Protein: Serine--tRNA ligase
Organism: Allosphingosinicella indica
Amino acid sequence: MLSLPFIRDNRAVVEKAIADKNVSLDLDALLALDGEVRGLKTEIDELRRQRNAISDSFKTADPAERPALGAKAKEMGAKTSEIEAVLADKQAALDALMLRLPGIPWEGAPVGPDESANTIVRQEGAIPSFDFEPRDHVALLEMNDWADLSRIVNVAGSRMYALKGRLAMLEQALMFWAQQQLAAEGFTTMTVPALARPQAFVATGHFPGHEEEAYAVPADDLYLAGTGEIALTSLHSGEILESDKLPILYAGYSPCFRREAGSAGRDVRGLLRVHQFYKLEQYVICEDDDAVSAEWHARLLANAEMLLKALEIPYQVIEASTGDMGLGKFRMNDIESWVPSLGKYRETHSCSTLHDWQARRANLRWRDGDRKVRFVHTLNNTALASPRILVPLLENHQQADGRVKLPKALQGLMGGEFL
Ligand SMILES: Nc1ncnc2c1ncn2[C@@H]1O[C@H](COS(=O)(=O)NC(=O)[C@@H](N)CO)[C@@H](O)[C@H]1O
């Protein structure tokens, strides 16, 4: 969300963000509502002032005049309530439009409608060349009995899987290993729930707009989150964080649930796109200073690259376009990992800076050195998301006989050179 003073003073910038992020929002209607709300508030204040004046005069008034004064006060009270009802409706309409406002993208973001406008920042790690016909991850799962992709569908429906044996253990080991790497970078590991109240989805920007992507639990007015970002964004809602508590660095581990409503037919084979997965989420709450945010964005990206380099997975860093980065983002860099069976890079990480766009929605504030209360900045990036990360991991390290050679970083954890 943006502040109304910012919108009033930066109309052209906001209009450009609305256009560049393909948002359908009538800024004139929003500002007209803002004007009406301010007018109604002024009217109410004036009525209250007059009513108070009458009440004050009541004590010293001639007894004969009191009935008329009482009637006047009563009439003003009725008028005030009438205007307050109108104000409530206008305020609700304004609040709804405010939630649709885009965050202003950084000036270096490629302007374009969707991911087709994304650009490649750089590529890291040599694409492996095999002296045998490489298998895809599903074939590797089958020949090593590392997953059940069929029976489980009878139990839980499509896009579901069960990992087995050493691969199931590797998934757990990977998450612990990543938590250790992030702890060394100062991030506090947290396990967070997937269940969350609707307001938590509004705070991150998932609602309004993406309700159909979340599984609902209507009996309890809860939804299942698709990312630990949702719990972490609202964890400190309503608090005023002292400056010595910033930055807050969380490594949030959670199950993630996504309906993938819009993904029919995409990635239907295997582990790339499933309804339930596990993610370790890097999350930062920092002071509202653009340079500080930019520094944390770079560090979140570097952390993810550190993990990919240790896993010896080739990848490329992507600069997201204005149309692909999402409503609230200032900047988004995806990392795409090489998948040999597809002969292309596929997204495994997504690093975002949101400035105070989420903080305003989540009511996340801090007290600066001058004791001034301000909204914070929030950032997030994937550390590891499994089972998707297993796809490049297994395929890039496969041997001719179908065994998978573990990267050195995991050999100690898994007690051997091979999975
Ligand atoms: N349906 C899915 N199945 C498997 N993995 C998924 C799915 N959706 C997302 N992921 C993984 O989760 C990562 C982060 O998802 S994201 O929506 O791009 N971004 C976020 O959730 C941010 N909070 C950063 O983690 C993706 O890069 C991908 O690796």
In short: The first helix runs from residue 4 to 9.
